[in-house]
Specification:
- The chain contains one helix and 57 strands.
- By secondary structure, the protein is an all-beta fold.
- The protein has seven domains: about 120 residues, Immunoglobulin-like (Sandwich); about 90 residues, Sandwich (Immunoglobulin-like); about 90 residues, Sandwich (Immunoglobulin-like); about 100 residues, Sandwich (Immunoglobulin-like), CATH 2.60.40; about 90 residues, Immunoglobulin-like (Sandwich), CATH 2.60.40.10; about 90 residues, Immunoglobulins (Immunoglobulin-like); about 100 residues, Beta Barrel (Elongation Factor Tu (Ef-tu), domain 3).
């Protein structure tokens, strides 16, 4: 774009004007020059006249150079305005940076009436800018997997310097894309990523335009991606195939394959695999060793960069299995039932059982019969019932196959024979129920089961398992070592039908088939006892009065009685199976609670074992006295009450343990618990026990029962300190420690 024409003027007197016109008509950016047209003239501003001069010189100066000159002779201004002194064009050179402000002047010297003067001009020409040179020598340098330095060279004429550089790149063969535009420079640092092949180009630009992109740089590489899905698999030819999924985004790489036979403690090189190949076969590896493989990607262009190693699964080559394992076989088996011989397949190469062969011998292993090789994954062989006669001892052994078809026994891939096991086939024992009898009423509440036993080969009875059932409900199961009589704890009830089921086990360890008997119970219930319970405050004893009325029709007399007492849900037996003697009896309970509720259950028992229960309640509210009891039935009693005081000290097992990270130890609590009760009283022998009574009691006591007005009732050991205050009064201090 050229500069517009500009007119510069200078007055010559009052009627005339000197005018210099400059116009940039063309330019040559390569030559850094412009062509400037000029025009110098005198203009008549007013009036008219005739100018006569023998010589009026003029000149035009560009810078310090006069580019034109002449003189104006006589001239008549009548009818015209301007007189052109001169005009023309001139080529001028710009400064090195393409700029130029042209200093020019028009000079006129009048010898007549016009006037002399100089018109000065400062004319700004177009800035001439050339296109920069194309950048060259583009080089990329890997700093890391995330950073790359790109450098280049630039050369341009002084009026063609770039004002910016644009860097483009191609990643892994993709189309070029601009990465960044920067101020003019010769290097820049750019982001990158792993697993990239990057090629760069650089372009320079200024107001004249942009250059072509440079020649592409030599590719640079970042660390290749590691392979994935590295897997090893054995082949039928006893080789191992290693396969992986390549993940490198450029072709300038290869994969290195290594193997280890010591679980990765050390590695050996196996192969270098070119790009485009993702498998390798390890030919004839050591079949006795477990192999594991690892694969990594490595660049084939400098610098050498390696991915992480990726490890495969472990592989054991196909090999014959070890001898199978037989479990401990029973010494005897029922010849009348199928016998299952199980074993455990023991592979060397992890492959499951594919076949087996079992051999049997009836002469201790001197000769064998065989099943032959049977294709099966089932680790057992069933011997059908009655294959062998009674008392026949049969020795058995087995061998197995995995997937290997070579090696092992007879080079067929078979394992060695297992250890031998011997089983003697026997006839099952036979159980029978002698009593109770089917469809015959059972006339007692106490169930006594009598069994019969037989075994064809003279084995002896070992034990029996007997179950009592009511319908589908199992009431009691007993294992007994005596067959003639087994007494059940469960009493059978009148009018109810039961079933007894039994099996017997013989000295061969064989168990008979299950036999059963169903029977109904018919017997007469005893009459219930009459019960009264009285609290004896002097001794803290409960006196239980029993009366046995004459049985009415349909009932029988009781022959024995059992008494149980419950305190706070805890049941204890006061008397068990006491014979009934006469129409009335008295039973003493030496350890009831003296401040609380005692619930008594009195069970009358007939000669047939039938029972009738009755319940009685004794509520005590002792507020003054306390008692020690010891001896048989805790029948020895000490009572005391004067100035009675007592206090309890409960304890629990604890231990202090120093814990990591704690300044102070922590407490651990155990299951052990303890209780001590300490008290004092004044013994007043006229109303309770004396000091001599307490001393005698202690010398003969073992476990002591302690009861006080708080309702506390505990069993344990007692220690006492006696201090005689006078001949009739003794101070007593005591400590009770609960037995655990």
């Amino acid at each position: 774009m050229t500069s517009p024409s500009t007119v510069f003027t200078r007055a010559l007197g009052s009627q005339y004007q000197l005018r210099l016109t400059l116009d940039e008509t063309d330019f040559d950016a390569v030559a850094n020059t412009s062509e400037v047209a000029w025009d110098l003239r005198v203009r008549k501003l007013s009036g008219s006249g005739f100018f006569t001069s023998s010589s009026s010189p003029w000149s035009v100066v560009f810078g310090a150079t006069t580019i034109a000159s002449g003189s104006l002779g006589s001239y008549d201004f009548r009818g015209i305005t301007d007189v052109v002194l001169g005009s023309g064009t001139r080529t001028v050179g710009h400064f090195a940076d393409g700029t130029l402000r042209l200093g020019a002047a028009g000079v006129f010297t009048d010898g007549g009436a016009i006037g002399s003067g100089t018109v000065s001009a400062s004319y700004l020409l177009s800035t001439l800018t050339r296109l920069p040179g194309v950048p060259s020598s583009v080089v990329g340098t890997r700093i890391s997997d995330t950073s790359v330095s790109v450098g280049w060279a630039q050369s341009s004429a002084s009026n063609g310097q770039p004002t910016s550089n644009t860097i483009r790149r191609s990643v892994n063969g993709s189309a070029f894309a601009n990465a960044v535009t920067i101020s003019p420079a010769t290097s820049v640092t750019l982001d990158a990523a792993a697993n990239q092949k990057i090629v760069y180009g650089v372009q320079a630009a200024n107001t004249a335009g942009a250059t072509a992109f440079s020649a592409s740089s030599t590719p640079i590489y970042t660390t290749p991606a590691a392979p994935s899905s590295v897997a090893a698999a054995k082949t039928a030819s006893l080789n191992i195939d290693v396969a992986w999924t390549p993940n490198v985004a450029y072709v300038e790489h290869q994969h290195l394959v290594e193997f280890s036979t010591n679980a990765g403690s050390s590695w050996s090189a196996l192969a270098t695999v070119s790009a485009g190949v993702s498998t390798h076969t390890h030919v004839a590896p050591d079949a006795a060793l477990v192999h594991v493989y690892r694969v990594r990607a490595v660049t084939t262009a400098a610098p050498t960069l390696s991915s992480a190693n990726v490890t495969s699964n472990s592989v054991q080559l196909l090999a014959a299995p070890n001898a199978p394992t037989l479990p401990a076989l029973p010494a005897f088996a029922n010849r009348g039932a199928a016998f299952v011989l199980p074993w455990t397949h023991n592979p060397v190469d992890t492959t499951p059982q594919t076949a087996f062969e079992v051999q049997f011998s009836t002469d201790g292993g001197s000769s064998w019969t065989s099943t032959g090789k049977i294709t099966s994954t089932v680790p057992s062989r069933t011997v059908t019932a009655a294959t062998y006669t009674a008392n026949q001892a049969v020795t058995m052994r087995v061998r197995t196959w995995g997937q290997a078809t070579t090696g092992g026994a007879e080079s067929t891939g078979a394992s060695p024979w297992s250890a031998q096991g011997t089983v003697t086939f026997k006839t099952l024992p036979v159980a029978s129920i002698v009593s109770p009898v089917d469809a015959v009423n059972y006339v007692t509440a106490l169930l006594d089961v009598q069994l019969g036993f037989s075994q064809a080969e003279a084995a002896t009875f070992v034990d029996a398992t007997i179950e009592l059932r009511e319908g589908s409900t199992s009431l009691e199961t007993i294992t007994t070592t005596t067959s003639p009589s087994t007494l059940f704890d469960t009493s059978v009830e009148n009018g109810v039908t039961y079933t007894v089921r039994a099996t017997v086990r013989d000295s061969n360890g064989l168990v008979s088939a299950l036999v059963s008997r169903t029977f109904s119970v018919v017997y007469t219930l005893p009459v219930s006892a009459g019960v009264t319970v009285t609290y004896l405050p002097d001794s803290g004893i409960a006196q239980i009065g029993l009366t046995f009325p004459t049985p009415p029709d349909g009932r029988v007399a009781a022959t024995s009685v059992t008494i149980r007492r419950s305190i706070g849900g805890v049941r204890e037996t006061v008397a068990a199976s006491l014979p009934v003697a006469g129409a009335a009896m008295t039973v003493l309970d030496a350890t009831p609670t003296i401040n609380g509720v005692n619930t008594y259950t009195v069970r009358s028992i007939s000669a047939d074992g039938a029972t009738a229960d009755v319940t009685a309640v004794l509520t005590t509210a002792e507020l003054v006295s306390a008692f020690f009891s010891a001896g048989a039935g805790f029948g020895q009693v000490v009572s005391f009450f004067g100035d009675l005081r007592f206090a309890a000290t409960p304890t629990r097992d604890t231990a202090l343990v120093q814990a990591a990270g704690r300044v102070s130890p922590i407490a651990l609590f155990g299951v052990g618990r303890g209780l001590q009760v300490a008290g004092s009283a004044t013994l007043l022998p006229d109303r309770a026990s004396s000091g001599a009574d307490v001393e005698k009691f202690l010398l003969g006591a073992g476990i002591v029962c302690y009861r006080d007005p708080s309702g506390r009732r505990m069993f344990g050991t007692l220690s006492v300190v006696l201090d005689s205050l006078n001949s009739t009064r003794t101070a007593m201090q005591y400590t009770m420690t609960e037995a655990t």
